[in-house]
Amino acid sequence: MKNRAWLTFAVGLLAALGGGWFAVPWAMYRRSEQPVQFSHRVHTSEAVGLSCQDCHALSDGGKFGGIPRLETCAPCHAEPQGKSADEKRFINEYVAKNREVQWLVYARQPENVYFSHAPHIRLAGLKCEQCHGQHGTTDRLRTFERNRISTYPRDVEGYSLVRLQPSRWNEGMKMDDCSRCHHERGVEESCLTCHK
Amino acid sequence: MTMNVSRRDVLRFTAGGAVGAMMTPAPWKALDDVAIWTQNWSWIPKPPKGPVTMRATACALCPAGCPVQARCIGGLPVSMHAASGGGLCPLGLTGHHLPYHPARVVRPLRLFHDGPGSRRIPVQIDAAVAAAAGAIRGAKATSRTVAVIDMRPGRSVSWGWQRFLATVPRGAYVPAPAREGSRFPSGVDLDSIRTIVSFRAPLAEEWGPPQLQKRLLDRRVNLIQIEPTHSPTAAIAGRWLAAQPGSEAALAMAIASQLHEGTAGPGEGMTPEIASALTGIPAETIAATAREIVQKGPALVVAEEGLGRAADAAIVELNTLLGHSVVAQTDLLAPFAGEPIAPATELEVIEDSSIALLLLDMSGGDAPFPWPLVRRKLAPKAIVIALSPFLAGTATHADYIVPTLPYLETLLEIPTPFDSTAARLTISAPLLPPRHAAVDPVKFLRAITRDLPGQWTKSEELMRARVSRIHERGEGNVGEKSVADFASADEMWEGLLAGTPWTGAAAAQTRVSVPHQATLSRGQAGPAGSAGWPSLLPALSEKDRSLMTAVTGRPPRQKIASSEQRADGRGAIDGGVVAVNAPLTLVIRTPRDVTASAAVSPVMTKLYRESGLRRSPEVAVVNPATARQLGLAAGRRAKLLIEGGALPVVIATDHAVMPGVVEMTAGPDAIALGERGARGRPGILDVVTADASGSWRTVAARLVEA
Amino acid sequence: MNTAHKPKARYGMVIDLDRCNGCGGCAAACAVENNVPPAAPKASDRTGLTWMRIYRAENGRSFPENRTAFFPISCQHCGAHTPCVSVCPQNAVDINPETGVVSQIPPRCLGCRYCMTACPFHARYFNWSDPEWPRDMENALNPDVSVRMRGVVEKCNFCHSRWQAAVAKAAANGKREIDPADYVPACVEACPTEAIAFGNLDDPRSEVSRQSRAPNAFRLLAKLGTDPKVYYRSDRDWVRRMGDTDVAYESEASRG
After folding, report:
1. Per CATH, the architecture of B52-100 is what?
2. Residue C20: how many CA atoms within 13 Å on its side-chain side?
3. Which helix (H) or strand (E) holds B203?
4. CATH number of this structure's domain B189-323
5. Record: contact C96-A196, CB cut-off 8 A
6. SS3 at position C256
7. Cβ–Cβ contacts within 10 Å for residue B329, how many?
8. 3-class DSSP state for residue C99?
9. Which of A160, B295, B380, B448 is most buried as measured by Cβ atoms within 10 A of its Cβ?
10. Local structure of residue A8 (DSSP, 8 states)
11. Looking at residue B674, what is its pLDDT?
């Protein structure tokens, strides 16, 4: 009888562990695909020869362009550059109709956060990959995951559940992550440094 | 072994689950996420996202027409900035909110003024067109008047109205008193002026472009402010003369008589002593003021409009004496040459009960004036149609409202402002797509009449026609570029759309626009039976108190007994001429930011309801001493009784207001600002009417407990 | 919090009260810049949100000897013993080490309003309701400033988003120092009479530093020793004396 008691306890424990480590984290995110598939690798390959800054530009005014608008893509993509279905759809539904693509932004920070690329790129000399990983060499756009409760994208929240290597790019871009990097580099920080 | 799940098993399982859950990230992450969720409520409005651009246009909210830069996100303006640096007025700073104003008219409306407040029902535009066309036919048959009150005279569309009114037998084109333009002698080079004598004009508050306020505060101009209130303008003036309200004419004449040292001329016989008795200002001060004007010349006299015929005439005369030649203001070029147009006329020369159709063109803005002055001119069953973007301001009196597009959603024209020495044309280009369907004023005009020759059917065509004529003539510049350097009129039009005004050659002589010109040129008696201008000044030169009574339109004031002065414990007042026992004198102020546009941005609550900076229109302000004498405390509800009717008011006390005076400010209903569905209550301009002197800014009033 | 820490720059203002005509441009520009919503349906001058509020002060004499002055009062950005910083249980208020600006971080604020009680200048405001604009007017909001929710305190931060933009602009050009012309708060920019000077008080060449040392310069409630970074100027004795009083209270009490 005693064994049975412990067994029941263990089953409950195991069920919770399974749920807590696998089922819940999976169910916590709503997954959606980008409206159009896009290969960064093709664009940064030698054949095309673009660099990150060619499309994700930082203006002299200090404003980072973020995801390029249609006007950046349209000059090359007035005609289909390849035979993929996504390419055809991009031309027909967006370029031809002059409609902006509603990209899902992986690293979109919430409304109360201020972040400027300019000091991080130009003054701190950070590389794109340090925060965004090898995104620039991927063949397809990852599935976009958004937390159902907090509504933050998973790139902001981080992919792993236990933060063993907090400096890895996919460990997230939350306040602690920004703060840690500022601390490590001895950069001044206070509320208004990152909040608006 | 059979599996009997007991209550204990469930508890054990749950305990195991609870312990297990603690060892997973799930509950901790859920807590964290919930905390984040509470920081980002979905119903909190989110600012727009998109590329940032600066777009140039011109502010069309008041006749000053300041060039502005709009900071736009995704093409939509989020803040307004002065194009040349420097500041803007609150109205201009919040102008980009107006397209979103809850009082916008989204479809043609029919208003019924049959009960308390007005009922409104949406109608088809055809109903308004049919009503107007019918009224025009009726006016022709019964030889009644068709009138247009143009809130922004001098535009191409204004010419369109005048062209139309020339085709009806009795057409009357009435330019609304455009505040600065009507009483500020236009075309005067302000840079050359060293002294400004202001009769109740709120120069330092919001008069003309903000640069004028800066000049006044830089003390580059010596300001003599004549006003019964210690207003912000009075506060920065070099000399503040707290003249009795209503005595402006006498004071102007007394200064005039001093200027020509008592020899024959305007104001002859109005000695400082007599003026002192009327104004309450010591005779020596009046004489000293006149000397100051001469010593610190060149000087210019400006005045608030609505002070009455005698004051208007005296002020024009004073300006003439100071060397500002009286020349009728020449308008900008008409869009088409040689076509007959109805001349501008004054409302008061229109026969009472004669208007069968009244069109209120508010497509360019609003202008404050008392509605009873208009109502008196309406025939029984007259139709009043307002072309307005908002159901607010003067439009609330109309029978029909035809929606037009507001500032920033449509092309608007700003003619020569009062402070420009040369002709000027500014185009305010739209920055926003129209949010609601609207009717172009010229299209509406074409719809209501078939007798109008010409091919133009849209406001823009008239504006372009005018620009073509300016281009043909080849005079002046657009910014740095000479008109002659533009290859075509279209090219010049594009230049104007960028917000840069066209400026003509500087006028050879300074001009003074003549108030009540129509009255004066006809040399006829004013409607109230008082003398017209030509006979007015000689009549006043007799040292006769009773005649002066006729000029100022109210009986001579009684001196307060000195014991009464001490009774309020506040000491004597300069000159000691105050009316204490009723009637009080009602003084009406109309700050521009709230009256140039029928609707103001909802964030104007910062200046009204959320701070004590601006008075609400329902507030009647009196001196604390007067309040004590009347037995009315601050915050109490009361009733203001004037000739035109009664108005519920809330009493406020302020040492800045002259004893015996009750001050009210026309403006938006501070409670209704920005609140959906809120209805404006009647304001002072809905009730007040002009007295025998033609003045509505100073009228007799009583305050009684509500 | 570390209130004794000396900031890199001390941004401050000098407001010339003899040049202020009470037009309200600063208050309107501030509301536009900082997404301050219009008054809530029942809001009054006690429950409104006015980061920059203009008080009308009187000399206490009766007509016609009465005189008025307008006091535009925003957060005074106290540099020492900052009352709001020391009382906040949430660390939602601190002094920015780079600008000396006293911050207020709404997402951290729990709405206890202790800071409002502590502030001697009545410069902090509480959101009694959720912000609401007329339909579609959120398109006219400034994306550089987040919109606050019900239940949090807010106040002037010297248009910190403009400082952030200036830093970004400088950084884009490889510079660590901002161009002072790029950082001008909305109220300063909007003032038609140029009554407000703004800049780094620690830079002896700046206009604001020069004016703050003028003989007619004073600070509100200087006796409290909170080292405000907003200075006022006036040549009128009675106006300068007002600086020792609670201007907000006095100006309301003197008017009915």
Report:
1. Single Sheet (2.20)
2. 30
3. helix B203-206
4. 3.40.228.10
5. no
6. coil
7. 17
8. coil
9. B448
10. H
11. 55
Q: What is the CATH number of domain B109-180+332-506?
A: 3.40.50.740
What CA–CA distance (Å, rounded) separates B173 from B450? 19
pLDDT at C4: 47
- State the helix-helix crossing angle for B156-165 and B441-448, rounded to 10 degrees: 10
Judged by phi (left if over 0) then psi (alpha if -120 to 50, else beta), residue B671 lies in: alpha
**C-alpha dihedral sign at B112, B113, B115, B116:** positive
| A177–chain C nearest CA distance, Å | 18
How large a percentage of chain C has pLDDT more than 90? 80
Measure B208 CA to nearest chain A CA, in Å: 34
Radius of gyration, CA atoms only, chain C:
18
Q: Using a CB-CB distance cutoff of 8 angstroms, which residues of chain A are in contact with residue B31?
A: none
In angstroms, the CA B270 to CA B272 distance is 7
Q: Are strands B619-622 and B645-653 parallel, antiparallel or unpaired?
A: parallel
Model confidence over B374-424: pLDDT tens digits? 999 999 999 999 999 998 888 989 999 999 999 999 999 998 887 777 888
pLDDT band at C242 (very low <50, low <70, confident <90, very high): very high
Cβ atoms of B673 and B605 closer than 8 Å: yes
Torsion angles phi and psi, residue B250, rounded to 5: -60, -45
Distance from C-alpha of B589 to C-alpha of B656, rounded to nearest angstrom: 14
Q: Report the range of poorest mean pLDDT among B130-134, B292-296, C205-209.
A: B292-296
B26·A152 Cβ contact <8 A: no
Does residue A84 fall inside a structural domain?
no
- Mean pLDDT, chain B, rounded, equals 82
3-state class (DSSP) for residue B322:
coil
- Residue B656 corresponds to which tokens in the numbers above? 């800045």
Residue B548 near residue B250, CB atoms below 8 Å: yes
CB-closest option in A111, A119, A195 to C167: A119
Q: What pLDDT digit, counting tens, does each position of C124-138 carry?
A: 999 999 999 999 999
A150 close to A133: Cβ distance less than 8 angstroms = no
Q: Measuring CA to CA, how many Å separate B220 from each of B216, B296, B301, C9, C16?
A: 6, 11, 16, 35, 17
- B534-588, pLDDT tens digit by residue? 323 333 333 333 434 434 444 333 332 222 332 333 322 333 333 334 589 999 9
Cα atoms found within 13 Å of the Cα of residue C36, Cβ hemisphere only: 33
Domain boundaries defined on chain B: 13-42, 52-100, 109-180+332-506, 189-323, 560-705
Q: What does each of the 196 residues of chain A score in pLDDT, given as a tens digit?
A: 678 888 999 999 999 999 999 999 899 999 999 999 989 998 988 888 888 888 898 888 888 888 888 888 888 888 888 888 888 889 989 998 989 999 999 999 998 999 999 999 999 999 888 888 888 888 999 999 999 999 999 999 888 877 777 778 888 888 888 998 899 988 888 888 899 8
The ipTM of this complex is 0.94
Q: Structure tokens of B313?
A: 């005439």
Q: Distance (Å) from the C-alpha of residue B590 to the closest C-alpha of chain A? A: 39
CB B66 within 8 A of CB C167: no
Choices 3.90.1150.10, 3.30.70.20, 3.40.640.10, 1.20.1250.20: CATH for C11-253: 3.30.70.20
Amino acid occupying residue B697? R
Residue with tokens 């026992």: B581
For C141, what's the count of Cα atoms within 13 Å in the CB-facing half-sphere? 27
Our count of domains for chain A comes to 1
Q: Chain A residues within 8 A (CB-CB) of chain B?
A: 4-5, 8-17, 19-21, 24-25, 28, 61, 63, 69, 110-112, 147, 149-152, 161-162
Side chain identity at C43, as an amino acid letter?
Answer: A
List pLDDT tens digits, range B255-290: 888 887 655 566 666 788 888 888 899 999 999 999
Residue B8 contacts residue A5 (beta carbons within 8 Å): yes
Closest CA to B453 of B163, B234, B665: B163
